[in-house]
Every structure is written in structure tokens, then in C-alpha cells.
Amino acid sequence: MSKLSLLLLLLFTLHFSHHLSESSSDLFDSWCKKHGKIYPSEQERQHRLKIFEDNLEFVNHHNSLGNSTYTLALNAFADLTHHEFRSSKLGLSNSANDFIRLKHSENPVQFPDLGVPDSVDWRNQGAVTNVKDQGNCGACWAFSATGAIESVNKIVSGSLVSLSEQELIDCDRSYNEGCDGGLMDYAYQFVIDNHGIDTEKDYPYQAKQKSCNRNKLARHVVTIDGYADVPPNNEKELLKAVAAQPVSVGICGSERAFQLYSKGIFSGPCSTSVDHAVLIVGYGSENGVNYWIVKNSWGTSWGMNGYVHMQRNSGDKSGICGINYAAKIISTVVLMIIQYVIHKGIFVS
């Protein structure tokens, strides 16, 4: 190659790099406006731009492969490193896997073989509250628990009431640790022991732990009197559970692809070690691929308006991202709900 050719190649490379940098900077400006991002200094802004560009490269690489069941996008978490994301957006207790293994030695609930619909979406029945946002507080466990209680209360009573995660964060201190993590089991037990839980409207979310409001703690708007495990690593039983009611589950939510998920059926790769709590609100299939409909607690700018479709029948007994491993139901109404579902035949999407 001649010196002239080398010089032209160098100039082209520099021009292309500069153009790419300009493009990503413009894209970052638009992204900041969309998500209301304002940084305290130009130095911090440049730092976040570098992270944004790294995530942009990751997103473009994944989407360019063309053989995935899902796509990624520069969502509200695109200026976070993967480490920052994992540190602030999860919240299932670090001891969750050990606790769940211990709990699995107890007798899980057994469902009768009554058959299930081909698809279910509890949102279509008005049994799911709006997607919420836990912010930078590791309280996914509280959102998963209230979500299940809200849905069961709607199914049984006909009333959909948004319940207070903040009450759980502030007042459920026997075992759970507020924004530092917790478990749905303990949240359910707290509601049982307290004889109920207050509404979100009366005891609103603050995204940080505060002192327990004893007056509001005494307002027992909705209660439960039992909960149980779905048989672990048993997708057939989990399917029957979801046909009866939305179900709290633990998943591995810490993968980078999950951070930047946009749409489609999430199929991993991901660990089966659970670190995040969500709510399954239904199931279905698309182009021959079965999926769970999962409600997250990261706001509506993540995923499909706050939801993700996660692959069913993945071939791993623990399910995609461990979703079959640690499912919880509000147990005392299960048989009544199953009878109601079968009798009415209405909870099919």
C-alpha cells in the first residue's frame, strides 16, 4: 500500500470516528431530554456519555445478530454501568437461594389436574395494578408481594386496590431489610401478622426507608391469611398456579441484556441464581415460542411498558433465569379461585 493510500485510510478512519462520536453525542443529548437526565457537572456528563456509548455498542451488537427472540434498546438505564445497575435495581435478599432451598423441604401446595387455558392474561380481567417504579431502592420483594396480594384481592373481592410497598419497607423489619433487600415470604407473613396492609394512596412510596408510620400501619385495608410455595422446578405446576392467580417469583434479573431489554421473548443467557423479584401475570405463545407475561417494577420506560415476556419450556428445569425455582402463591384462596375459573371460564386472554 502506498503512502498516499495509507494517508487516505488514516483520514477516513479519523473522519469516521469523529462522525460516530458526534452521532453518539447527539443521540445521548436526545436520550437525556427524553428521560429527563441532568448531570451535576460536565465531567459527570462526559463520564455518562462514555457509559452510554458502551451500552450503545452492546445493544447494536446484540440486535445485529438477527437470531435472537428479543431486542435491546437504550432505555432509561443506558447511562448506568452493569455494576451500577445490579447495585441499585434488584433487591431479592442475598440469602434468598439458601432460604428457598430450606423452604423447599416443606410441603408445597398441590394443584388439581383440571386443565388450563392455552393462554392467560390477568391484565385483561382488570386484576393487575399499573406498573410501578422501585427507583434506586432494592425493594423488588415488596413490589412482587403487593402485586400478588392486589391481584388476589381483585379476583376474590372484585376490588382492585394498589397497596403500600412503603409500609413493608418501613415497618417489616423482623427479617426484611427495606431497600437493602428482602423476601416475599417475610412480606406475606408481615401482612398476616399485622392483619392487613394499607393502600399506596394513603402510605405512598418514597424509594427510601423511613420510620414506620404506626397510624397507617393500623389501617388494614386488605389482608391475607396464608401463602405457599409452588412445587419448585415444576413448570407444569407453575402454569396451573398462574392460571389461578398472578404469582410472585424470583428470577436472575442482573444480566446486562435484561438491563437493556426492549421487546420480544427474553431467552437469556442468564443464571438460574435468583436475585430479583417480579410477578407473573399470564402466559401465551408467539410463533411457536411459549412465554410468561412478567410484570417488573422498573417503571414503564423499561421493556414493553414495564413488562417482559420470558421464555417458557426452555429445557432447564429451573426455567429461564430460574423463574420456576421460587414461586409463591396466596394459598388459602387457590382452590376457590380454581373452581371459579373453571366454572366461569372467563380468564382466558
From TrEMBL:
Keywords: Disulfide bond, Hydrolase, Protease, Signal, Thiol protease. Residues 116-331 form the Peptidase C1A papain C-terminal domain. GO terms for biological process: proteolysis. It holds the Pfam family Inhibitor_I29. SMART domains: Inhibitor_I29 (SM00848), Pept_C1 (SM00645). InterPro entries: Papain-like_cys_pep_sf, Pept_asp_AS, Pept_cys_AS, Pept_his_AS, Peptidase_C1A, Peptidase_C1A_C, Peptidase_C1A_papain-like, Prot_inhib_I29. It comes from the Eukaryota. Residues 1-19 form the signal peptide. The keyword Hydrolase applies. One of its GO terms (molecular function) is cysteine-type peptidase activity. SUPFAM superfamilies: Cysteine proteinases. Residues 28-85 form the Cathepsin propeptide inhibitor domain. Belongs to the peptidase C1 family. This is Uncharacterized protein. It comes from Chenopodium quinoa.
